[in-house]
TrEMBL record:
Native organism: Owenia fusiformis (Polychaete worm)
Cofactor(s), names only, from the UniProt record: Fe cation
Superkingdom in the source lineage: Eukaryota
PANTHER family, per the entry: PHYTANOYL-COA DIOXYGENASE DOMAIN CONTAINING 1, PHYTANOYL-COA HYDROXYLASE
Protein name listed in UniProt: Uncharacterized protein
InterPro entries to which the protein is assigned, alphabetical: Phytyl_CoA_dOase-like
């Protein structure tokens, strides 16, 4: 097994070392089939988080775009219980080494033949602009569909988080400054983070990552959950939250969820009021 791929939810010394050395770890089957089916059903329901979706244009490929929904509070629906669970929040807290809170979550939708690319970037390249002083943050992507090279899976530069934050420039989307990117690509191994449905990748906020357009016939949906640390509370108000205690739940709460479409209090992002630096938003989907 690759040194970045694991089974099981206990954070071992090997997992911690891999995360620190590589900037990411992959955990297989973090959503077993029954839980995955519950989550997928809720995400596909037009009364769920999808109703708040908007477009993010590719920038390079005319007619290509991704769809996204973003919310600040985890809430009590099935996506909120998942974000607050021991196997998501618990692992994130152990990897980051201190108390965490939910910064925001996103449903990222690359539809077949139209799903656009994401430029090479660091999440902290965006979040730095929000008054967050330290890169003590992470993102967790869970594959809802098969996420492989053919349909525009996540690509990462292994170990690139050790560079620290690098400059980003606006070129269609906000991405890493081209000359620095070229140097990084010559130094760090590019890894296609291919995931099967229910697999998850946990990655450092300074890890360089991107994804290609989805020109295949296969949809690629990804649920992303972003966490910040308590000690890293933003120093200015913006469109994502300050520290809010995370109400953790056991893993069993996911399967036991009685109200998977409870949208109360999730605080969905309004693309018209967010910053381009954080979300690369160009227009809102009309539904």
């Amino acid at each position: 097994m690759d040194d970045s791929v694991f089974n099981g939810y206990d954070v071992t010394e090997k997992m911690m070392k891999s995360y620190k050395d590589n900037g990411f770890i992959i955990i297989k089957n973090i959503l077993p089939p029954d839980e995955l089916a519950q989550v997928r059903e809720a995400l596909e329901n037009p009364k769920g988080v999808r109703q708040h979706a908007y477009d993010v244009e590719d920038g390079d490929n005319e007619g290509m775009f991704s769809r996204m929904t973003c919310w600040n509070s985890p809430g009590d629906d099935i996506t909120g219980l998942l974000a607050r669970s021991d196997k998501i929040a618990g692992i994130a807290e152990k990897l980051l080494g201190e108390d965490i809170y939910h910064y925001h979550s996103k449903l990222m939708m690359k539809e077949a033949r139209t799903g656009g690319r994401w430029q090479w970037h660091q999440d902290y390249g965006y979040w730095y602009q929000n008054g967050i002083m330290f890169p003590k943050m992470m993102t967790i992507n869970i594959a809802i569909d098969k996420s492989h090279k053919i349909n525009g899976c996540l690509q990462v530069l292994k170990g690139s988080h050790k560079m620290g934050r690098v400059d980003h420039v606006l070129d269609g989307q906000l991405g890493v400054e081209p000359e620095r990117l070229k140097l990084a690509q010559g130094k760090f191994e590019k890894v296609y983070a291919e995931l099967n449905p229910g697999d998850a990748i946990f990655f450092d906020c300074n890890l360089l990552h991107s994804s290609s357009p989805n020109t295949s016939e296969f949809r690629r949906w990804m649920l992303a959950m972003c966490f910040n640390t308590k000690s890293n509370n933003p120093v200015k108000a913006h469109h994502h939250p300050f520290y809010t205690p995370l109400q953790r739940v056991p893993n069993s709460a996911i399967k036991a969820c009685k109200d998977p479409l409870n949208m109360n209090g999730k605080d969905f992002l309004d693309p018209k009021s967010s910053t381009l630096a954080d979300q690369n938003i160009t227009k809102e989907i009309k539904t």
